[in-house]
C-alpha cells in the first residue's frame, strides 16, 4: 500500500474492522482498513471512492426536514463563525466551498460584500437556497479567477479523493492575499484514544482522509497556499464524552445535568482545544 496523499510506502495499518457509512445514529457496517502515512502524517481509507451527496444524505436520518437541519447546523456553524470572528467577513467577497444547506452563508451574507457557495449536488438543497441573497454554483470551475477574498470550507475536504487538486483550483479563484479557513475532523481526537468503541464511529466511509496539522500543511503547500495558523474546536459537550464511556454510543450534545454545568463544560472544551485533541481542526492559510 502506498499513501494516497503523498505516495510514500512508509505506511502502517491503524484500524481494521467495521466503520460507519451513515449518519450519527446508524450502525458501523462497512468493512474497512485504515492506514497511517509516516511521511505526510495523514490517515486514509483503502478506497478512493467519493460518496455521492445523495447517498450520503439519504443515510442521514431527518436529512430533509428543514427544522431538524437548522436545529443541528445553525449551532454548529455558529461555532466555526465564533472561532473565525464575524468581523473577518465584513465587506469581503466570501465563498463557502461545500456549503451544503447554506447554513454558514446564512450567518455571514448580510455582513459580507458578496457571498457565494459551491455545492456539487446543489439540486438536493434547492429549497434551502430559495430567497437567499447568495448564489450557489456546482463547481469551482464556475467561479472567476482572482475573485474571492475569503474562502471557508467546513467538514468537506476529508471527503475528497484528490484534495490537492481541489485546493489548487481554490488557489485559482482566490485574490492575491486572500485568506482561507478549512475545518476538518481531527486525527488526534482524544476519544479515539480513551474509548475503543468510538473508532468504528469516528472512521467513516465518506471520509477518505483523516488529517492532523502536518498533513494539512502538506496539502496546502502542494497547492501553493501558505499556512498561517491553526486552532482546535470541540463540537461536543462533556456529557457526549461521558455517554461514550458509559453507553458506547453517540449522543450528540446531550442536555447538561448535575454535576457538570456550563462552566465546567467550557473548561473541558478549552482544555481539549488547547491540547490539540478536540474533535476538529481549523486551519488558516493564504494565497502566496
Ligand atoms: Zn503520505
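^ Assign residues to that structure.
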Amino acid at each position: 500500500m502506498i499513501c494516497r496523499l503523498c505516495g510514500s510506502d512508509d505506511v502502517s495499518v491503524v484500524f481494521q474492522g467495521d466503520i460507519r457509512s451513515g449518519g450519527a445514529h446508524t450502525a458501523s457496517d462497512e468493512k474497512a482498513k485504515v492506514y497511517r502515512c509516516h511521511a505526510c502524517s495523514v490517515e486514509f481509507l483503502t478506497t478512493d471512492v467519493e460518496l455521492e451527496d445523495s447517498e450520503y444524505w439519504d443515510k442521514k436520518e431527518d436529512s430533509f426536514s428543514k427544522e431538524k437541519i437548522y436545529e443541528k447546523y445553525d449551532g454548529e456553524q455558529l461555532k466555526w463563525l465564533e472561532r473565525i470572528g464575524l468581523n473577518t467577513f465584513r465587506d469581503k467577497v466570501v465563498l463557502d466551498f461545500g456549503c451544503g444547506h447554506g447554513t454558514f452563508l446564512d450567518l455571514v451574507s448580510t455582513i459580507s460584500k458578496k457571498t457565494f457557495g459551491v455545492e456539487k449536488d446543489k439540486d438536493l438543497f434547492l429549497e434551502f437556497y430559495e430567497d437567499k441573497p447568495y448564489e450557489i454554483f456546482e463547481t469551482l470551475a464556475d467561479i472567476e479567477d482572482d475573485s474571492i477574498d475569503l474562502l471557508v470550507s467546513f467538514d468537506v475536504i476529508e471527503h475528497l479523493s484528490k484534495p490537492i487538486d481541489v485546493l489548487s483550483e481554490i488557489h485559482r479563484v482566490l485574490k492575491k492575499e486572500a485568506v482561507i479557513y478549512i475545518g476538518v475532523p481531527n486525527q488526534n481526537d482524544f476519544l479515539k484514544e480513551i474509548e475503543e468503541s468510538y473508532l468504528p464511529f469516528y472512521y467513516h466511509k465518506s471520509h477518505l482522509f483523516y488529517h492532523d496539522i502536518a498533513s494539512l500543511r502538506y496539502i496546502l503547500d502542494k497547492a501553493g497556499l501558505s499556512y498561517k495558523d491553526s486552532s482546535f474546536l470541540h463540537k461536543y459537550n462533556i456529557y457526549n464524552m461521558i455517554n461514550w464511556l458509559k453507553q458506547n454510543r453517540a449522543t450528540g450534545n446531550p442536555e447538561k445535568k448535575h454535576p457538570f454545568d456550563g462552566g465546567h463544560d467550557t473548561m473541558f472544551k478549552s482544555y481539549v482545544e488547547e491540547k490539540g485533541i478536540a474533535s476538529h481542526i481549523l486551519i488558516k492559510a493564504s494565497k502566496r
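The radius of gyration is 19 Å.
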